[in-house]
Design brief:
Length: 258
């Protein structure tokens, strides 16, 4: 009986890809670990359970940060959060592109983005603030950072990528699981989403003039982000001036009444 429905997989074919590729699991003396307790297909299910659990944990961390901002700071820099787990087909293709044998061990070792979480922010300044808040959590280990905001890709793509590792606690102890987090502004996400759709139609080989136009749009998005950040800072300064003026007026009236 196929157990693929348990993890949202649509058919037995997806698990059979790993059933055919993986012939044996790790073995050794002593007590077997969480990932060594069963047959390869069950190991696949156990592995995906860990990734699914890691995704939930990171989502919970982000939800708590959002609640803190709203309840305590009266400001929410997080506009939207999206999460996904790579399909078996995508995992197999990426391992093959990397020249690696298709196995669960290589999947865990070489792929950093099986779990992907995207955080959409209002302003570029929010991106670094959120990244620091996630990085500073005690159970989070930052593995790599790619700052495509400071160094955009040649096509104009901008985003802040970080791969982290967090412990997932199972019956025989914690298992470290990697999660990729992408943090970008609304404008960056708008451009990236449309760029992906356009290139998908051309199988990644868009005509040169399309690429030039997309790069020009990316430059426009960059200017928009800078302008919106400048406006936001101006609003904050005005709010601070109003607060300071009210304090001065209060102190003046207090002294006058004495």
């Amino acid at each position: 009986m196929c157990g693929s429905r348990y993890y949202g997989l649509k058919s037995c074919h997806k698990n059979s890809m790993f059933r055919e590729k993986i012939k044996e699991i790790r073995s050794g003396g002593g007590k077997m670990s969480f990932l060594e307790q069963s047959e390869p297909v069950d190991e696949w299910k156990s592995t995906m359970f860990l990734y699914k659990s890691a995704m939930k944990q990171v989502q919970t961390k982000i939800d708590i940060l959002k609640d803190e901002f709203v309840e305590i700071h009266n400001y929410n820099p997080i506009e939207h959060v999206a999460a996904r787990i790579k399909t078996p087909e995508s995992i197999v293709k990426k391992l093959k592109r990397a020249g690696k044998e298709v196995s669960i061990e290589n999947m865990r070792k070489y792929l950093n983005d099986i779990v992907g979480i995207r955080i959409i922010c209002s302003f570029t300044s929010d991106i670094y603030m959120i990244a620091d808040m996630i990085s500073n959590q005690a159970d989070v280990k930052v593995i790599t950072i790619k700052n495509y905001i400071e160094q955009p890709k040649p096509n104009g793509y901008k985003s802040y990528h970080m791969v982290i590792s967090i412990p997932v606690f199972v019956s025989d102890g914690p298992v470290d699981v990697k999660v990729e987090i992408q943090i970008r502004t609304i404008a960056m996400d708008f451009w990236a989403s449309l760029e992906h759709k356009i290139y998908y139609k051309f199988d990644g080989e868009a005509p040169a003039y399309i690429s030039r136009e997309l790069k020009a749009c990316a430059d426009m998005v960059n200017r928009l982000d800078k302008k919106m950040l400048s406006l936001n800072q101006a609003v904050k300064e005005l709010e601070q001036e109003v607060k300071e003026r009210k304090v001065r007026e209060y102190e003046f009236h207090t002294r006058k009444a004495q």
